């Protein structure tokens, strides 16, 4: 399974594979996105998550996203 994401400045969605899992923590997802986009050189990089449908922002790092 893959999780789609988009940066505000981007026109298109991108995706990261979560290795066949049915859920992923926000912390692990952040790590995968940072690696996928080669952002690990930026020490102060942080990602803010929001629901694409509701616009609800900043989900807890302990939250798990389910399929």
Automatic annotation (TrEMBL):
GO terms for molecular function: ligase activity; zinc ion binding. The keyword Transferase does not apply. Keywords: Ligase. Pfam families: DWNN. Residues 3-67 form the DWNN domain. It comes from the Eukaryota. This is E3 ubiquitin ligase PARAQUAT TOLERANCE 3-like. It comes from Prunus yedoensis var. nudiflora. The lineage of its organism: Eukaryota, Viridiplantae, Streptophyta, Embryophyta, Tracheophyta.
